[in-house]
Amino acid sequence: MIDASALGKGEDYDTLPESYVIFITEKDALGDGQALYEIERCIAGTGKPYGDGSHIIHVSASLADCDTELGKLMEDMRCTDPDAMHYNELKERTSFFKRSEEGIAIMSGEFDKIIERIEEKALKQGRIEGIEEGEKKGVERGKSESKKEVARNMLADGSIPLDKIAKFSGLTIAEVESLKQSSIR
Fold first, then answer.
1. Rg of the chain in Å (alpha carbons)
2. For FRET with 138, which of 49, 106, 129, 163 sits at 20 to 30 Å CA-CA?
C-alpha cells in the first residue's frame, strides 16, 4: 500500500522511492536486547539482499541510551515537559499542544474522538455479549421447558413412578412433584 501511492499509473517499479517503516515501541518488541533493529529483506536460501528499497526499523524506547541522538529522541518521546526535551522541533510542537488554547482544543478534540471510538467498540462488544447471553438463556429456558413438558406428559399417563419420570426427564424428584401438584390444581 505504501508503494501504491508512490507510483503513478504506467510508471516503472524502478522509479519507486525507498520506503522506511519505523516502529517505535515502549519495550524491546523483538527481545534481543537491542535499542535499534534494522530489518532488510533478503532472498531465502542465498541470503542476497532483495534490494526493493523497502526498509523496516524497530526502535525500543526503553533500551535507548540517552547519550546518543537516538536515545535523546526516545527520551523526548517519553517526556511530558516540553522544557526538558532535547530537540527544539518536538519541544515547540509539544508546547503548542500542551500550552496554547488552539493546541489544547485540537488535542481535546482528538481525545474526544478516541473516547468515542472506545465507547463505540465497548457498545458493540456489549451488544454482542448481550446477544450471546440472551441466546444462552433462551437455550437454557428451552431445555428446561422441554424437560418439564416430557415430565407433564409422563405424569398425564398416570402409571409411571415419579423416580422414573425424574430419570427420563432430567428433572429432580422435587421438580416432578411440584409439576404434579401444579397439574392437580
1. 34
2. 163
Sorted by where each begins, the domain ranges of the chain are: 2-63, 110-184
| pLDDT at 176 (0 to 100) | 92
Nine-digit cell at 98?
500542551
pLDDT value, residue 67: 85
| Torsion-angle region of 105 (φ positive above 0: left; ψ -120 to 50: alpha; else: beta) | alpha
pLDDT confidence of residue 4: 65
Q: Which regions of the chain are under pLDDT 70?
A: 1-7, 64, 185
Alpha-carbon distance of 4 to 47, in angstroms, equals: 27
pLDDT of residue 62: 81
